[in-house]
Amino acid sequence: MSIQAIDSGLADLVVAETKLSLVDGERGRLVIRGHALEELSGRRRFADVCGLLWTGALDVDGAAIARALGRGRAQAFARVRELGTALSMENGMDALRASLACFKEDRGSPLEVGGALSGAVAVLAPAWWRTRAGLAPIAPDPEADHAADVLRMMGANADSDYADALDAYLVSVIDHGMNASTFAARVVTSTASDAVSALVAAVGALKGPLHGGAPGPVLDMLDAIGAPERAEAWIRAELDGKRRIMGMGHRVYRVRDPRAAVLERAIERLESKGKAGDRLRLARAVEKSADAVLRERHPDRALPANVEFYTAVLLEAIGLPREMFSPTFAMGRSAGWWAHVLEQRAVGRLIRPKALYVGPLAA
Ligand code: COA
Question: Is 0.85 surpassed by the pTM of this model?
Fold first, then answer.
């Protein structure tokens, strides 16, 4: 039988049916369980959108989910002291992966387990940051709003403008089709393994700069460019050196990532209150230059800005250090991972593709 290897990146291969999110790469649309992203980010709290993903309904009791997240944060914090070695690791995603691996999935309703998982990620990332900085981790307030509590646990300014901005970010990255980390979570789940194992695998996948590790380098790029008039020359030099421009290009989108626009609006809201510094102008100029130069170099492949470009600008404006950008992405996406674990469990079939053997045959 002759078989042919498919594209090594599995591009355009459909590996599951999902009711969780639609990523429309041609029209630049993201739909989360029947709701356009623009209806959700900045308009509904993270807890409400967790409810949408975990139950299918937007108007389930948001307060109950907020309580489940609060309980999850409190339970996770009770274990922070014993996770000292994991939380002392140099890289935040390594620390998150190692510390999360010490948890186990408890029995409970989808809301309870989801609250425990997302609550744990929301605690472990700030605990890592503070431990690494030589500061004592700050205990969560289980009654507080989830995003505000994350900022408080960081020791950052948690006023409602910043909490709203972080909440809008967490919602904008909550789920995104069959991205690499979600696929990793689904593969693990398909073996009938547990949700913590699935999330640990997903954190490992998200760490990579081609997936969730790009926003820190985006900020490094903005720092290196410094002023709008230097953008074009800098980008040309990078491309001449065969390096990729972080925050540009996407496997699915052929037009601008709709999350970039949503995040840009969140930055504008902070800016209108004098709370966003002055990065946005530079970021827009760099995006424009990168877009133009990439069009020139790749006339057949659109490489517009992706979510990571404005993530960097927004999370910096919120006051988070760049080392926290990928762990903060994981906080939002953890809710989507759990929803995919539930969906994959319902499928109940092992994911086990084949490889085309191209090595020597036995003599
Ligand atoms: N900067 C420069 N060139 C890029 C590029 C970028 N950001 N993204 C893709 N390209 C180029 C590739 O070098 C390749 O060129 P070639 O055909 O001359 O070899 C071409 O575009 C196609 O790239 P490919 O790697 O096949 O695309 P992909 O669909 O596998 O990659 C990404 C998608 C996201 C991994 C890719 O666009 C990328 O690396 N972006 C930067 C990292 C980033 O922002 N990641 C966050 C994603 S949300």
Answer: yes
